[in-house]
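Weekly structure sync - notes
Attendees: PM, LS, DV (DV joined late)
Agenda: review two folding runs queued last week.

Item 1: First target. Sequence and structure tokens pasted below for the record.
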Amino acid sequence: MSDEYMDPSGNTEQFRAFAHAEPAAPVKAAARLPLVVGAAAVAVLLVAVAAWLALG
């Protein structure tokens, strides 16, 4: 089976392009807000269902 991965250090020009590539932009906290709110809502719902089952 052949290996398709080309190591950027194997070629000087490829390595320079790899080394000087800009890093990916970090994920903003605002982008995570809907995920956190949704996870909190699911957690509250699960606690409510567990309490309802325990008391019912």
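Item 2: Second target, run right after the first with the same settings.
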Amino acid sequence: MKGYAHWSFGRWLFSVALGLVVVTATADTPERVLWEKRPINVQLQIGHERLIHFPDEIRYWLPDSIKHKVSVLAANGVLYINAKEPFTRSRIRVQGLSNQQIFLLDVMAGEVDTVGDELIVITQKSVRNLSKESTSHKSTEDWRIRLTRYAAQQLYAPERLAGGDSAIKRIALELSTPVPLIRGGLVETMPITSWQGNGLTVTAVKMRNLSMQSLQLGFDQSSALPFLNLNDRLRGDWLTATLQHSDLGLAGSETDTTTLYLVSDQSFLESLKLTPLNSKQSSGE
């Protein structure tokens, strides 16, 4: 298996002046906040989605106290967060995947009159390097990231953000039944759809927890238990593997399913070294 890279689907390129520090705005204008190692206060209006942009691909951790009080999705370097009911100040940890930068959000939800739709988190590095990054982005673009980002947009992003890409086309899947992608039998995997661009293929795979315990997912060793190290258990020959979420709830729960994005330089079945006949075998080993 080839080396893995995993992201939370995208980088936000900021259109800001180089000297910008902190700018507050009306509800119709994005609020911009400079990260200075202090928690960022985020006010939520119940039932009103806020978009929090970061200068990197991200993953996040929610405290247990608010997991059922808020819906959260990370896609395209953006945290989409919507409060279902009021809660007091709680801290969300967000991590950039390129340089492991940690951001802390102090989030609270209540009956407030209005809050802005978008909040942009800026770092000194992202501001200083804006001009260089903007001009060099196309020439250094990684098609593995582009395909993964596109797939995540199509499946998870709000309709207004799930735009098309003329260089990427949807292709037919060779099968739509569970496949033995992950060793061990704890998780069922089934390909959902595939897209192709620049000679590469990205396939979105539905992952469903079959066990009666929650599972932490990742690509490295971890002390968290129970932990499923996909670097050891993932079958096939892939260029990159990307998780939509880093955990699965126990079987039968609302959170027992997530999506795995696999990029390859051949078709899904060729990369998994399966034929339609033997792909019907059990996913356990």
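Discussion on item 2: The longest strand covers residues 187-197.
Action: LS to circulate a short write-up before next sync.
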